[in-house]
Design brief:
The chain is mostly helical. The protein is built from 6 helices and no strands. α4 runs antiparallel to α5 and α4 runs parallel beside α6.
Amino acid sequence: MAKDTVRYPDEVVDEIDSLVENGVFESKSEFYRFSAEYVLALVDDEYDPSTFNYGELKDELDLDEQPRLLGADGGRDFLDAVITVRQYGLRNDFEAAEAYIDENYDATDRPGMILEELLRVYRDRADENGPAGL
């Protein structure tokens, strides 16, 4: 099994810790494995989750087959938007990212707000690291 290191905002880690403390997941590792496989299954119809207890966890969590956030396309359009905003963010092209979000999402819609928050992460990184960005 491969090992990957991923950085998350403290608020996200706090929420995951809370889920583990409340017994929703046995460990943070279980949460990360399940969530990665869940999203992969949403965006790729042919992906077959193989994480131990995936089906049991999904049943216990009583997850909708199509989460409200992702919409009828299974999240492909939103995932494409996340990738686009991420690409702009990595290049510190914040104006292009803002224009993309404004052209495709209403400022009060949940997906639009999530994309704005993602863009904020890249802005903060650019501020911390100077004009060269990441």
